[in-house]
Write a structure and sequence with these properties.
The protein is α/β, with parallel strands linked by helices. The chain has helices spanning 6-16, 82-88, 103-106, 125-153, 156-159, 168-187; strands spanning 19-28, 51-59, 64-67, 93-96, 111-112. Helix content is 39%, strand content 15%. The chain has a five-stranded mixed sheet with strand order 3-2-1-4-5, with helices on both faces.
């Protein structure tokens, strides 16, 4: 079952000793009517389409633990209070992609992002090789979040949302709840008669 808020997620990860993985996703929506003053904020800079964004936090095995309500702009973890929550719990580790750079320093290393490139020009071969190995190792640990997001988007309601945008947050969180329940049920072995 998905946890209701980030505080429950951080508490669950701390007590279970699991690593969390955080990533954002975009869901295409209908274009707002012309003349609306907030029409431009639904345009994604990444895909150049009308979209809303959600932040998904999964367990290390790819199970969806939390999905925040969708927003038309960026869904920064800082805005959701993740930095403050991680300041209180030193036993939690959360993996993130390069989009969350800087969050590690704000959380005392609890959010782990890919390593920075220290040399952008004229880097030696050994440095390039070491950086590439570290980046691939981090990426292979974070891929489970992409799997969790893919399972979310397998639901037709989230493949491309054509209904009212006002209901999108409720739909995303309902699908996340159903998916998490299904994933948890799959982990429990069926009783033998």
């Amino acid at each position: 079952m998905p946890l209701r808020n980030l505080a429950e997620v951080v508490d669950h990860l701390g007590t279970s000793g699991q690593t969390g993985i955080i990533d954002g996703t975009e869901i295409r929506v209908r274009r707002p009517a012309s003349g609306r003053e907030d029409r431009d904020k639904f345009i994604s800079g990444k895909t150049k389409q009308n979209a809303v964004k959600a932040m998904v936090l999964t367990a290390g095995d790819g199970r969806v633990l939390f999905c925040n309500p969708v927003k038309p702009g960026s869904c920064a973890a800082r805005q959701l209070g993740l930095v403050k929550l991680l300041a209180d719990d030193p036993a939690v580790e959360i993996l993130a992609d390069a989009g969350y750079q800087g969050l590690g320093a704000q959380t005392g290393g609890r959010v782990v992002t890919p390593p920075h490139r220290k040399f952008k020009k004229n880097a030696s071969d050994w440095y390039e090789e070491m950086h590439e190995q570290q980046r691939k190792a981090h990426s292979s640990r974070c891929v489970r979040a992409e799997h969790g997001i893919a399972h979310l988007k397998n639901w037709r309601a989230l493949a491309r949302h054509l209904s009212r945008r006002e209901h999108m947050s409720d739909i995303v969180q309902a699908v996340a709840g159903l998916l998490s329940h299904q994933q948890t049920a799959d982990l429990i072995p069926a009783r033998q008669s």
